[in-house]
């Protein structure tokens, strides 16, 4: 993509508490770019983001504080949120620092089917195990909006069902969700955006 090229235009949506949106489209259609714009990592040429009737700044420290309070952002490239050369238990404990949920590290290890792996080093986990470990952060860091970029890649059917259960729980608590995905994922009453 050339710098300054238009990725998409005329995209508009709103989500109520408990709402979900599934963003789908071909590779390069702008799914990840849309998520990047929402968190302020990619400035839009035009448009705005409004949260609870407040226009959000399009960059800088104000947006980063706003982002940290509102978003839990998950994207896969190499799973950079996983620290190498520590155990799974230690990684969960790192995720738990400043945790603002009612879940304990032990509960999340069991919930994410990682309990038996807790003493293994993170760098020897399989792709699916590393993905489950990265997704465990969603249960430990309560944010009103989850932005998930291709969250099901590398997951087996049991892990996808686990993710879908976490999503249902998040939405029942009033949380919002935007997923960019090629795969179908069970999202009841979700808005669909085709890029």
TrEMBL record:
<dbReference type="GO" id="GO:0005524">
    <property type="term" value="F:ATP binding"/>
</dbReference>
<dbReference type="InterPro" id="IPR003439">
    <property type="entry name" value="ABC_transporter-like_ATP-bd"/>
</dbReference>
<keyword id="KW-0813">Transport</keyword>
<dbReference type="GO" id="GO:0022857">
    <property type="term" value="F:transmembrane transporter activity"/>
</dbReference>
<dbReference type="InterPro" id="IPR003593">
    <property type="entry name" value="AAA+_ATPase"/>
</dbReference>
<dbReference type="InterPro" id="IPR027417">
    <property type="entry name" value="P-loop_NTPase"/>
</dbReference>
<dbReference type="GO" id="GO:0017004">
    <property type="term" value="P:cytochrome complex assembly"/>
</dbReference>
<protein>
    <submittedName>
        <fullName>Heme ABC exporter</fullName>
    </submittedName>
</protein>
<dbReference type="Pfam" id="PF00005">
    <property type="entry name" value="ABC_tran"/>
</dbReference>
<feature type="domain" description="ABC transporter">
    <location>
        <begin position="1"/>
        <end position="195"/>
    </location>
</feature>
<keyword id="KW-0067">ATP-binding</keyword>
<dbReference type="GO" id="GO:0016887">
    <property type="term" value="F:ATP hydrolysis activity"/>
</dbReference>
<keyword id="KW-0547">Nucleotide-binding</keyword>
<keyword id="KW-0201">Cytochrome c-type biogenesis</keyword>
<dbReference type="InterPro" id="IPR005895">
    <property type="entry name" value="ABC_transptr_haem_export_CcmA"/>
</dbReference>
<keyword id="KW-1278">Translocase</keyword>
<keyword id="KW-0472">Membrane</keyword>
């Amino acid at each position: 993509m050339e710098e300054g090229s238009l990725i998409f235009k005329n995209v508009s949506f709103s989500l109520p508490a408990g709402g979900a949106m599934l963003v789908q489209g071909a590779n390069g259609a702008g799914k990840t770019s849309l998520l990047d714009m929402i968190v302020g990592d990619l400035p839009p040429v035009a448009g705005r983001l409004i949260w609870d009737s407040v226009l959000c700044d399009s960059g800088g420290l104000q947006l980063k504080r706003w982002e940290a309070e509102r978003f839990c952002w998950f994207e896969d490239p190499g799973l950079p949120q996983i620290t190498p050369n520590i155990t799974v238990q230690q990684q969960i404990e790192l995720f738990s620092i400043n945790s603002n949920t009612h879940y304990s590290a032990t509960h999340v290890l069991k919930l994410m089917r990682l309990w038996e792996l807790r003493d293994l080093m993170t760098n020897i986990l399989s792709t699916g195990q590393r993905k489950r470990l990265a997704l465990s952060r969603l249960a430990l860091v309560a944010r009103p909006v989850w932005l998930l970029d291709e969250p099901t890649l590398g997951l087996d059917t049991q892990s996808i069902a686990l993710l879908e259960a976490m999503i249902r729980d998040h939405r029942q608590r009033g949380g919002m969700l935007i997923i960019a995905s090629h795969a179908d994922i069970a999202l009841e009453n979700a808005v669909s955006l085709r890029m």
